[in-house]
Every structure is written in structure tokens, then in C-alpha cells.
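User: For a benchmark we're assembling, each entry needs the component sequences followed by a predicted structure for the full assembly. Here are entry 17's components. Please fill in the structure.
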Amino acid sequence: MKISHDEVIHVAGLARLEINEKALDKFATQMGAVLEYMDILNSVDTTGVEPAYHATRLSNAFRSDIKTGHASKDDALLNAPEKEDGAFVVPKVV
Amino acid sequence: MKLHELTIKEAHGLLKQKEISSRELTCALLDRIEIVDKEVNAYITVARAMAIKQAELADQAISDGKITYLTGIPLGVKDLICTKGLRTTCASRMLENFVPFYDAFVIKKLQEQGAVILGKINMDEFAMGSSTENSAFKTTCNPWDLASIPGGSSGGSAAAVAADLCLGSLGSDTGGSIRQPASHCGVVGMKPTYGRVSRFGLVAFASSLDQIGPFAKNVFDCAALMHGIAGYDSMDSTSVSKEIPSYTSFCTNGLKNITVGVPREYFNLSGVDPEVLASVNRGIKTIEDLGATCVEVSMPYFEPAVAAYYVIATAEASSNLARYDGVKYGFRNETRDDLVQMYKSTRSQGFGDEVKRRIFLGTYVLSSGYYDAYYKKASQVRRLIMDDFSKAFEKCDVILSPVAPTPAFKIGEKIDSPLTMYLSDIFTLGVNLSGNPAISVPCGFSEKGLPIGLQMIGNHFNEGNLFKVAYNFEQATEFHKKRPVL
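Assistant: Structure for entry 17:
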């Protein structure tokens, strides 16, 4: 299976990634090979099989609605690439 | 006797008798790391000062009569488990300078027991890989042959134990990332049942598959370490509240009343190295000779499991790794462009090639129009694989199989073919999909002297049976006694 350069750029964009122009061909070939391999799934009859999204037998884990400890603002900002007045700074949005 | 060669059991005995101090032991290991790790490259960060301080605290606890099995024992930790105040990089440029402000549950547990953390250990970036070649910082070498890979993604954790650079270590296993490097480095490694060990503070790769587990020089040590990290944690919503048995108590002789299952599909697979098959078959024979009953079981969905796994694992990864956006922590490409462009350039420069490939694949299989064909289909196949395991465990207590299709390959050999690399996980990834526990135990050496591992798979929450079979096997063999020369 071959995926087109346009498809690579589109999906990479959804993932907020840029694929280097020079690497595009190799990337498309490698991903095409993996996706082609994944076609083996179509040979499995899954009629009426309920999907399994996890392997535990747990249902939802709830906790009581009681305030508990939380990270301090300083801790939360500790690793921020850019911060100001107790907030994360990002490039101008609007 | 050299201190770095001690097992956890031996070191515990000597610490308890006050024949050695944890400070001495810790310094001996730190000194060895300084020399030997120049060749092995297992550590990303060596926490010398912190480790010595922890060792002194452990010595104080021991002199106060408060000793646990892990008090004063120097361990290594894979660099994706958060350690408060100690850089946690995931072997990625993205987190090169990330210093967590909290400890993972397992770290807190180890510290409560007085264990010493020597440092943070190399891995494939974000645990994506089977060779440790995907680390952004260095490639770890196999202590048995420095030109070969140690396995991955927890390659550093396995190599560090094999090279006596720690007495035991922690890794994580999403598709074989503990068992495959354990096999390649000739040490014991366990992936516990999903839910047995809290994932709180483990940097997420694929949340429904990830599990933290121990590496050790032998089965008893592995059981002791496993006991030290298992347990319920309200901070992980998939943590299961179940009593933790004393795992070391399963390390006793006798395999009567144990039935082992051999899945015929695993042994009919083409392309498996004949030396691996021969060693594994001899291992099965040894276990039979020890008194276990051997039956054949069937796992019809063994082969499609690889495809199902890579759909599910990459889908979850693409979602989990969306958090690396250059805003809250980690690398940011300093651009004054707009926000979306900042995300893109940060992620494109911060992530390595394999991580980008997996995010790409995950995004692809979840994208509009493909979801049903890939993600839903893979999740249905996952159900069939879970049913395979349930049916097999109606007939046996432990399933035996190879860990990896070949012994460790050469550095650089497979790096250009992601698909070939993915296929090397075929024996290990099934239990991540089904949640079962599994252990890798040394069962032989190739002609070139590279270790080969035997995989034992257990029923949910029955790690005890694995320790029992593994311990008896180890007692009957000599493979774990052979050490690499460094």
C-alpha cells in the first residue's frame, strides 16, 4: 500500500507534526508498509464481536466529591517554557 | 566478594547483619557505573549525591532496627518514571530538562521501604522501540556483546542489571519492553498483570497496555522487588484493589499440580531462530522433568495480534502524546509565529523519528473514515485474543513460549525497517492486549554467547504461579549464574 504525499501532509497536520520535505518519500513508504501489514486484520471474522478497549474487569472508578490536595501554582508552572504572573504564556492567538 | 556482584537477597542479608553498610554498597555501585557505564551506556542521569543521602538514611533506619527487604538496596529506574527533583527525560529532547515535582507511586513505595535510587536509565524514546536505538541521547549496548542491542524499550534497565550497575531495576512494558530486553541481556524481567502496579507517575505511552515491572539477577530478587512495588493506588483509576501475596513465598521447590500449556501456533511460526527454538524446547522439557504436566493449547489469533497491537498502541500514543505542545512543560521551539505553528515546530523538533511515526499511525487509524476499519476492528480482535487466553487458562496454569524470535541483533541492523522491528514483538505483545502477567527467565545461550529467554505467561493476578515455575526452572539450570565479562 502506498500513501500519497498529500495524505501524509494531511494526517501529519492533524497530529500537529511537520514532515521534512526530503523525508516525505521514505516516510510515506514506511507508513504504507505498516498500514498494508495491518490489513491482516481484515482476514479475521469479527461479526458480532464486542470491541475490547481495555483488559481490566473494572467499571468506572469514582472517588467521593471531596476536595483533596492538589499541586500548587508554583509547582504546576515549574517546568513551563514561558510563564508570567502565574500563568503559561503562549504566542498571540487572536 | 565484590559488592556490585551481590544479589538483592545477599545484600539484604549482609545489611541486616551489619556486615556492610548501604553507603558502602551504594558507593561501590556508583564507582562501577563511572567506569563500566562508559561502555554500556545504561544511565542517562546518575544521581550520586541523592543516592548517597538515601543510603545514609537507610543505614540509619537499619541501625534503628527498621529494615525491610529493600532497605539500602541500590536500584536503577527507567527514565519515564517520575522522580521528584530528579530529571525525567523519557530519552526525548522533548523532556530533556523536565524535572517532576512529584514522585510516581512506585518511587514513593520504594522510598518508604528505604531503597536507594542510583539514577535514571536509558530507553527508547517514550518507550517506543525494541532496541534502545531510539533514545535521543545514547544507544545502550548489550553487556554480552557491546556491538549488539540490549533490547527495548527498557534496554537500559536490563543492561544495567546484567552489567552489575544496580542490584535490580524498574522498567515498563507496553508490548514486551521488559521481557524482550530481559531475554536479550540474560536477566529476569516481569510484566505484572494490568492493574497490579500503579501507573501513577509513569509517563504514558499506551494507557490500556502500559505496566511497570521489575528486573533482577534472579527469580527470587524479582519476586522481592515485585512485592515492593505492587499494590492499590487510588491515583490510578485502573489500579485493582486485591491482596498482594508474599511473592517470595512462591520461590519454593516442587512443581507437582502445575500444568503448563504450549501454544502450537507459537511454535509453528516461521522465521524463528533455530537456536531460540532449541533452547525454549529444552526449557519446556526441563519443566516437565521437574514434575509439571505439559499440555498443548491453541491461540488462533496469535498472528493478527501484532497488527491489532500496533493499531491500538499507536492510537493511544497519538492521544497521550498530544500533551507535548510546548506550553505546560518540556521543549518549546522559540518561535513568534502563531500558536498552531508553535505546536507544529515544537513537536517536529522535540520528537524523534519513531515517535513521529507512531503518532502519525495512531492519528491515521483514528482519523475520520478509518476509525471503524482500524481501531474498532483491532479492538474486536483484541477481544478474541483475550478469549484465546481465557480458554487456554482453563487447561493450564502457565503458558510457555519464546520471548523474542532471535537473540539480540546488531546495533543498526533493523533501524531502517520499522515493520521488521515491530514483528520482533510477536511473542510478547499478546499479554499486553489481554492484561495477563508474564516473566522472562534465562534459558540458554546462542552459539555466539548471547542470552535467550523463556517466557512464562500466567492467569490474571496470578504472578505467584510464574514465580513458582520460574524459580524451579532456575534452580534446575545454570544460565543465571553466567555473567558477562566487562
